[in-house]
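Give me the fold.
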Amino acid sequence: ASSNLARFDGVEYGEHTKPDPPFKGAISDLYALTRTKHLGAEVKRRILLGTYALTAAAFDNYFLQAQRLRKLIRDDFERVFTASNYLSKISEQQMSSPSSPSSSSLSESNTVSKTTPSKNEQTVDFLLHPSAIRTAPALDDPSSSNSLDSYVQDILTVPASLAGLPAVSLPAGYGEDGWPIGISLVGQWGGDHRLLRISKEIEGCLGDR
């Protein structure tokens, strides 16, 4: 999220804010001026958190821990999907290769497991689940200003993204409060074409709900 949001600098992406003349600051000051005016508090918070997590001081405590968690999430998906994730096998081979520049630091930290997760007795081709835990809150809803509630609202979309799996969200009618709801379909890595084909079938079954 930090990398995606950071592109809104007012030069290449996003609305540009002209500084008051005469402007004698650096280009970073121009970025700060634009982002201060046009980005909301939650967007600024995510940019700062993401940038800090990639700094050298936070690398071991945050980045490597996140890599461990990402591997566990990918293994969970691997156990339930009928098809295998061949990208994971390639990544494990690269990590175990002595020529890999990051293999030593990652292996020393036990970040990547060399074992392939075993399949469950019952596997599936796709996973279907709600896109969010609730409908979109109103602007004056107290939860809108609570950052923790905002993160929890996104929790169902995060696992597929962390595992690098294809996923699509489809409209699925309206909730009791009249706001639209969505469902997400998640497939195995490399199954993008099948995912889109099944999504089209589901969309046709739901119709104009």
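The longest helix spans residues 59-80.
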